[in-house]
Design a protein that fits this description.
The chain has about 110 residues and is α+β, with helices and mostly antiparallel strands. It has 4 helices and 6 strands, in the order βαββααββαβ. The radius of gyration is 14 Å and the shape is elongated.
Length: about 110
Amino acid sequence: MRTVKLVDLAKTIRSKNAGTDKITFDIIFREKENYERVKQSGVLTRARVAELFNIPQERISDFHEFDPALAIKFTLYRSRPSGSPGESDIFGCQQYPPLLDLEVPVDP
């Protein structure tokens, strides 16, 4: 089966602070067809997020598919509070790259 990378289907893939203890991720689509393709494929789930980010599923506080906005959103608990010693991304804006190469099946 042919696949395409998530980065080629989504309009926006980003991460950002969601308070001192969380980072939130947004995957937003321009076309409903691409949103539905990703949603129906099952390649983006809590389990897959945990695998991509090498974390236990308990670190995922929320995971939502929001149809009106053609968006998938999830939030992770940080391993360290934002701005604390040893924390490497105070704004949480550099955490999304594991999502970019996620392969999504497409019809032949």
